[in-house]
Amino acid sequence: MSEELPTGVQRRTFDGTERLATRGESVYGEPTEGEWRAWNPHRSKLGAMLELSMETGLAGGETVLYLGAASGTTVSHVADFAGPTYAVEFAPRPVRDLLEAADSRERLFPLLKDARKPETYAHVVEADVDVIVQDVATRGQARVALENRRFLADNGRLLLAVKARSEDVTREPAAVFADVREELSEGYEILETRTLEEYHADHLGIVARPR
Ligand SMILES: C[S@@+](CC[C@H](N)C(=O)[O-])C[C@H]1O[C@@H](n2cnc3c(N)ncnc32)[C@H](O)[C@@H]1O
């Protein structure tokens, strides 16, 4: 069990089961209790990282750049407890749902942009964000993190979910993870890694800070 959840994230009981929860409008049909909505770690790598007690450094209220927002499953929870939350997603279809999730969340800013081209949103995203959350599930995941390092404050954190099969379906996940870690270390110091296997097959969770 996680002892240090960010302010705004709580363990609450839904249908007799204790689960992570944030306060906000429902987004993906998740169970709700009053103002609280359950955060499903099977559908969210960041949710899994919190369930596994990884040291995310999240305290609540921070400025977040979220890469790979899709339709907003995870980033909606983030915007429930964080400060300004910039949500980058390059596929137009999920962005429609993301815009809907942002309707009731005044701190959530969807950006229809390619995370490999940070110069296209550098004029919108404020400098020195506290946290980058990345879940792009695409080839070149370390490169995306390195390209976006420019936005991160010196004492900020990268919370990265790496999907092995997105890099190369034919290789052993462990070999892929080793390569990603090595490439990442060009610009980041890795503080913690943990398999997210319990919730997401062949995914590695990484907490890092800029070097
Ligand atoms: C695994 S899904 C993200 C799920 C989401 N993070 C969540 O938990 O709710 C990966 C997403 O990354 C997006 N993506 C992949 N490459 C991207 C890129 N270069 N720029 C922006 N989004 C990208 C995909 O379109 C897809 O929606």
From TrEMBL:
One Pfam family hit: Fibrillarin
Q: Which UniProt keywords apply?
A: Methyltransferase, RNA-binding, rRNA processing, Transferase, tRNA processing
PROSITE patterns in UniProt? FIBRILLARIN (PS00566)
Q: Which InterPro entries match?
A: Fibrillarin, Fibrillarin_CS, SAM-dependent_MTases_sf
Q: Name one GO biological process term.
A: tRNA processing
Name of the top EC class for this enzyme: transferase
| Binding positions for S-adenosyl-L-methionine per the UniProt entry | T73, T74, E89, F90, D114, A115, D135, V136, A137, T138
Q: Which domain of life is it from?
A: Archaea
Q: Does the keyword Aminoacyl-tRNA synthetase apply?
A: no
Q: What EC number(s) has UniProt assigned to this enzyme?
A: 2.1.1.-
**What are the protein's GO molecular function terms?**
histone H2AQ104 methyltransferase activity; RNA binding; rRNA methyltransferase activity
Physiological role: Involved in pre-rRNA and tRNA processing. Utilizes the methyl donor S-adenosyl-L-methionine to catalyze the site-specific 2'-hydroxyl methylation of ribose moieties in rRNA and tRNA. Site specificity is provided by a guide RNA that base pairs with the substrate. Methylation occurs at a characteristic distance from the sequence involved in base pairing with the guide RNA.
HAMAP family with a match to the protein in the record: RNA_methyltransf_FlpA (MF_00351)
Q: Which family does it belong to?
A: Belongs to the methyltransferase superfamily. Fibrillarin family.
**NCBIfam families referenced in this protein's UniProt entry, alphabetically:** PRK04266.1-2, PRK04266.1-4
Q: How does it assemble?
A: Interacts with nop5. Component of box C/D small ribonucleoprotein (sRNP) particles that contain rpl7ae, FlpA and nop5, plus a guide RNA.
Report what the protein is called.
Fibrillarin-like rRNA/tRNA 2'-O-methyltransferase
Q: Which source organism? A: Natrinema longum
